[in-house]
Here is the input.
Amino acid sequence: MPSSCRHLLLCLVLLGFVLRGQQVTPTPADSLFQFAATQLSQGKYQEAEESFRKLADLEPTVSRGILGIAEVWIAQKKGDDALRFLQEESGKHPDRPDLHFAIGNLALRSAKYDLALTEFQLVLDRFDRNSKAAAEIYLRMSDAYRLKGDLDFAATVLQQAQTLQPDNLVVLNTLAGTLYVAGQKEGAADQYRKILELDPKSGAALNNLAYMLADTDPTLALAYAHRARQLFPNEPQIADTLGWVYFKLKRADEAISLFREVVQKEPRQATYRYHLAAALELKGDHVEARKESEAALKSNPSKDDEEKINELLRNLRR
Here is the structure.
């Protein structure tokens, strides 16, 4: 059940595997399920709903027909109706954690984070807190806390998931990113190192660790950045990170070359233009640095980047 799981039917299947620990032998109901899912994918909403209702009648103790009906309504942009329907069905079948999971997943998609957390907690209460299944629910809860803006709680539940699944790369990557955004850079760096122990070719871990170390240990950062560049030579973000490390090492020409490469590929990316401007300023090319800074300001920079760009422009006007 990866963090990116958003489709109710897919999530149901994955949750079912977690609950049962094995796949189910195909049955006529499975064929009907596949038929209904195909109708849904083809936009045949009325037919799909009818098929899912038949499936729900055929499997009174299984919830995938119910979830299919909800997914038909969601596809027609009737998310609130789908949510109410699932809540009504859950009230009729309070012993089905997959319905609570589906409500939580839909609430998460609808930015109703408190409801999502309540429903995921109800699912979690049905599991052994030391099981792998519990780790999967913690991962979903972390999404709700993170999107709600509560990064500390997001990190806390992710750490609980990590304790249960220490080799789960999805958990590790999500935890590292959450810690970084929360300002806990040392903790994030530790998680990226753990990822590299499990997957030495993780471009994201190599790149992010290099960027984080650029200020404190640029020599070590350079090693990580070079490795990432070797593995992913056409990835602009990795080229930008390598350029930033060169910038921190005062190697302006090498930084400028890489920044020009990424700006050419993604000219509307404000961060890349700001980095190029900073490297040009380091070299002493103030005219070009001002030009790139002004272009960066016109490229919809983040608030943090906008502050940095304006500071660079003030320095260039002195």
Observations:
- The chain is about 75% helix and 0% strand.
